[in-house]
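In the current project phase, we have settled on a layout for protein records. One protein thus recorded is set out beneath this paragraph:
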Amino acid sequence: MSAPTHIPVLVKEVIEALAVQPGGRYIDCTLGGGGHAAAILSRGLPGGQLLGIDADPNAIKTARARLEAYKDSILLVNENSVNLQAICIKYDFLPVHGILFDLGLSSLQLNGDNRGFSFKRNAPLDMRLNPTQKVTAADIINTSSEGDLAHLIKAYGEERRSRQIARCIVKERPIQTTLQLTKTIEHAIGGRRGKIHPATKTFQALRIAVNHELEHLEAALKQAINLLGFEGRLVVISYHSLEDRIVKRFMQQEAKDCICPPSTPTCICNHTARLRLIKKRVVIPSPEEVKINPRSRSAKLRVAERIITQDEHITNRDEQYKVIEKSYLSEGANNGGWRRPIMLKRLRQTFSAAYAR
């Protein structure tokens, strides 16, 4: 396993979307092979800092080796981004200038691992990003009822032949390897049709179910918005419609002042916009990038920017300063160099400029 085999997706577009600046503080919530992190740190010199998070311990090891040149500017944490806010509080890494989610599996996980992520490699049906998790893909395949399997494959894989596949899986159980499962799926739907392998959607569904990916994504996005400083950027790259739908809905909702149903005569939600959409349309890879890295073909990038709400503007300005000052300047804290008074000064100047508008 080596870092050069991992090709990050939409690197230039990510750097532009994050508006990376020297001295900035950034979070890569899905570190993977460290490709995006390296690009962020390179543009963030001098003084840039990055918190890298990944549930996969192998990804942390690979990224650490790749980011060795930036070892004094990185903090790598083997955790799930569903605990994003707790991680940032623990390591005093807030507020930040930008947060990135790259939701796809890395090439290392698909091509170099033996955990059953790919139907192209024969391996145990595991699919756990974190090996300490209890439930594996084999557990789901071999213990779920036919109806539950069909529902899971349809809901998380958007597979219209889910009932046929579930029926064949139950008949062929126990199934312990990716090759067994792939052959069972091919038999269920009569072999390969079109460009997409017949096992693709079922494997996607199992991976999502094992790692609770959609639930964790929604929870992490809600936390991310609270960690961004004024004009901080939230950037998300998704690879299938289920993820993209969650991201699109979240950003659009947080960019509105009222989210009441259209039938409500007057606003009762008291919701205020906390994001501004930077690009209303998704950013996709160029034909040149897809040719070099075919796995990038389904990538969609969305970006939004943190804004100050009316309540934050009028009511909480002084309180925000106090919280920031306490966070950055508290004495006796084991800060490991992550709190910087100069950052407080920049933040105060930025907030002041915003309030003067």
Confidence is low (pLDDT under 50) at residues 313-317, 323-341. The CA atoms of residues 325 and 342 lie 11 Å apart.
